[in-house]
User: Fold this.
Amino acid sequence: MIHSNKNIMIQTILSFSLFLFSVANYCVAAEKVSVLLHTIQLSGKYRTVLASLIDEFNLENKQITLEYAVENNEIYHENRKKCLQDPYCPVDIYLGFAGYNFEKNVAHGKVEAIDDLWQQEALDLYFSHVKHSISFEGIQYGLPISYYPWGFFYNKSIFKKLKLTPPKTWSEFLAICEIVKAANLVPIIIGTKTPFPAASWFSYLNLRLHGLNFHMQLTSGRVAYTDKKVRHTLEFWKGLIDQNYFNKNYRQLTYLDALPYLYRGLGSMYLMGNIVLSQIPEKIKPNIGYFRFPRINPSIPLYEEIPLDILFIPKQSKHKKAAKKVLEYFSRPDIAYRYNEAAGYLSPNEQAKKNNDNLIHVTSEHLKSTAGFSYFFNRNSPPEIGRPGTKLLARFMTTRDIETTIHEFETLREQVLSVEK
Assistant:
């Protein structure tokens, strides 16, 4: 009897132990890792598609719960800067931009390396042409997610009426400006109430006159703005302004306010990124053409302005392994296509399907022959130069004061150098 009771007790203990073991295993299996992605609010369509992509990720990955937050541009940048300084920041993945700030954050140890993911997923097959933009000392730190080339959009009806063809050289471009001006139309549209379009003019003229290496050295603060090449660039730009080729009300217009001047036939050409294409009515798009910024110096290769967006993992993330799983998901060609189709951008993923919007597709054609690219003035520059410098360039269109502009830029540069020392 005692022996029987003893056996029953042992069996009970074993059964209970097995039960506890099963419960523990179930809890471990059921435990999910939460990953938080922060990005910028681009449009209603973008947010809707992003939500769908995240829902699909969560269905595929039972051990991870991917959550997201979107913020408007200014707030987003402020919060991201604070987060990268905070070891307790809960964000696991950020939308970032290739250029000066990203390089600095990598150098200061604020960004997690993803070279293991890069090798594991053979991402060279997808991103070899932009790999250098997210690599430092041979190590990768971000996933290229979007880019949006700049160039000239033009009104086809005006060009047809005046028997014009898209220019390839600077002399051809200037001839078009004269013909359009003589027809009492605006040759070049711009809006500097949002100052960054002015920066695109400085950047492209500098690239076409002096090349990519000089431009990148200058904008990053490693070359003085007193360099004679800067004066040359500003003199070239001033010549266009002096000829009254730009619309006179540019200070009152944002870059979006200026857009209807193009498609309503009030002006002929608009230097802008394809970020504006979602704002052009679909029925009007067939009347809008595109050409790359014309060559000026025959000895300088054709470099382009192409801002590149990336996804990266901040160093303080507590869920790096799960975050890399998310980056793996967004590296897939089908996901990259849907993400960028909603954003109105181009995917840098070479295996991704091309955007159905023909005009977006046209803007990407010249990327195949570009000799290299700049990320955009403010992204190339330290923030202490990029933000106020962009405003200086917008102001230059009004003052046309080369001496003061050079002096104020060099003052900004020297302030950055004194802090870095």
Notes: The chain has two domains: 29-148+308-368, 150-305+382-420. Confidence is low (pLDDT under 50) at residues 16-29. The CA atoms of residues 164 and 247 lie 20 Å apart. The first strand starts at residue 33 and ends at 40.
